[in-house]
Write a structure and sequence with these properties.
2 copies of one chain form a homodimer. Chain A is an alpha/beta fold. Chain A contains 12 helices and 14 strands. In chain A, strand 8, helix 8 and strand 9 form a beta-alpha-beta unit. Chain A binds a DNA duplex (16 and 16 nucleotides) through helix 2 and helix 4.
Chain lengths: 345, 345
DNA sequence: GTGAAAGCGCTAACAA
DNA sequence: TTGTTAGCGCTTTCAC
């Protein structure tokens, strides 16, 4: 509540400020924007008047003149869900710093609504659009030859020349695998989501590649199923049956990992002593609620959002950023579920 | 100005439309807005030209003239988390229908940032502000005598005259209790979050009141603890010790309920046969992942958001909506965890 | 029925 | 150093 200027019920224009400071409107403008040369006394008088009246320049008017709006649109099909939110926050972070405000739109994954919102955003003269999603599957772009730059974050346009920022699913899988190998595990199983998901396939590929480099291969079959705990429970049983000597399980999501953890516990396998467990997503309520707390791959969604915003800002500034796909590295969050087994007695 | 080298489609002004249709700007404006009387032929000519050129009226210019922006701000301290998102979506729903766009801001629960964002929103001449939060605890308002109406959703201003829309924690507690009573349970325990949370206290009060009406009281003490699964696991043990004959447990959150469910299973109590379980939040990944799937109280967050938006729209329209707190009823989502025990065979 | 002109709040030339 | 003027894109009188 520092500024006493707050609380002006009526809108104060620069006209009012000029009048109060007994200068012309033009002079007031210059004083407020620190442009041109003028007596310090005059400038101070204007600034004081502005302060006193609680003057806020009207960005509509400024924008009208400058031909800019200092706004961008953020369109999500994920209903701002678990994945798009961190992305969104990262983006807002980067944009907010640049005085750019964000219009949010939720399309509910409906192309009609999406079309509608994009129209609306363009009508509002946003200077760019960020599209986020829940999956990394390539999707049709929101339109071609749009008058503003578009960046896809955590989703990918089928048009290869569009700018897309996506997580490193494959690298994440490899990261998990190498961590397990480093803690001495060699019989590593994999329970993951539906095969039709690019993300699931990539994570599995990352695992296989890393194991391959160590002369190993996944224990049992790679088990594709659902993105659910229930499947985690089932999958673990299948895996224990197919590869009873499994000593680590990498899961395609934290939810799956929780299901796996439960089954392991019920089958008398201790985590991490008998079987180490790695999840994917670093979805904290899941990962921390798990017994034991879950080591998991973090896709750095916030970074994806920040990067998307930065690309967009560059594009708005006219700097050619070069289209194409940018992959943001994943990182590993270590918790109890992969604590190195103490030497057995 | 946009870089001249940009291949972006050039913005079409009403001037261009007027020229193309060979009418004056004023006539073009009237034709486009369906105002005034004019020859159908003229109107059609203008509309055709606008269509052909892809004309979109510039809302900045329109707003400048009308003194409106058709935007509102949405400020959250919850980092658009689990609670504020459904609220947000509900709000966006109601606002979007009215052609109002939403600026989003995340304050990260930092008063400085909040102050900053509110300033920014006001500078942008939003016509109203919705404040959402993660808790229902009363919080200081975002400022007094703001030039635009403010509605608090899923949070509450300490200033009683402010408009706040909050969930019915007490009613939700009562709802859970009555449901359990209706399925024949009489020894009902309660494990919930920290006592310092208004929400936890209200839910407990709702339970007690409903039990009281049936001449009962909670089994064991009401156990206040944390909003975590871990506490759910511990709390269940405490409760089983204090009231071994407990036949139902109402939990202050779905996360707690999951913890409780785990302990119950490990102690050999079947859910729902031996002990029925009710959660709070209807947080689907938690409630559905639970074994068995959880009956839980839904706060109808979307409705809170919609209502907040509607209040705001009314206020913007100048309709006195009357300040104060509005409580949105909760509902119960039935799942396996309270299935009426079948007659034992 | 149509057009010319004023002005929304602001900035950037140019005059004084 | 300061004031005046001409718009940014649009809507809206009010003459014609």
């Amino acid at each position: 509540m520092a500024s006493p200027s707050e609380g002006t019920a009526k809108t104060v224009t620069i006209r009012d400020v000029a009048a109060a400071a007994e200068v012309s409107i033009g002079t007031a403008s210059k004083a407020l924007n620190g442009r041109g040369r003028m007596r310090t006394e005059t400038r101070d008088r204007v600034l004081a008047a502005a302060e006193r009246l609680g003057f806020r320049p009207n960005p509509l008017a400024q924008g009208l003149l400058a031909g800019r709006t200092y706004t961008v649109g953020l369109v999500t099909g994920d209903s701002f869900g678990r994945f798009s939110i961190p992305v969104m926050l990262g983006a807002e972070d980067a944009l907010g710093a640049g005085k750019i405000s964000v219009f949010m739109c939720d399309t509910r994954d409906d192309p009609i609504r999406e079309r509608h919102y994009v129209e609306r955003l363009l009508a509002r003269r946003v200077e760019g659009i960020i599209v986020t999603g829940r999956r990394t599957e390539p999707r049709p772009g929101i339109g071609r030859d749009l008058p503003v730059p578009v960046v896809y974050a955590m989703t990918q346009s089928t048009d290869e020349s569009d700018v897309s920022i996506i997580p490193d699913d494959e690298g994440g899988g490899a990261l998990a695998a190498r961590h397990l190998l480093a803690t001495g595990r060699t019989r590593i199983g994999h329970v993951t989501g539906p095969h039709r998901f690019e993300a699931a396939r990539r994570r599995a590929r990352g695992l296989s590649t890393a194991l391959d480099a160590a002369g190993l291969e996944p224990a049992g079959e790679v088990l594709f199923g659902q993105w659910s705990e229930e499947w985690g429970r089932q999958g673990a049983d299948v895996l224990l049956h197919a590869a009873p000597d499994v000593d680590a399980i990498f899961c395609g999501s934290d939810q799956i990992a929780r299901g796996v953890a439960e089954t392991l516990r019920e089958r008398g396998r201790r985590v991490p002593e008998d079987v180490a467990l790695v999840g994917f997503d670093n979805w904290e309520p899941m990962a921390l609620g798990c017994r034991p707390p879950l080591t998991t791959v973090d896709m750095n969604l916030g970074e994806i959002g920040r990067l998307a915003a930065r690309h967009l800002l560059d594009a708005i500034a006219g700097t050619p950023t070069g289209g194409g796909v940018t992959i943001v590295p994943a990182s590993l969050v270590l918790r109890e579920s992969t604590r190195r087994a103490a030497p057995q007695g």
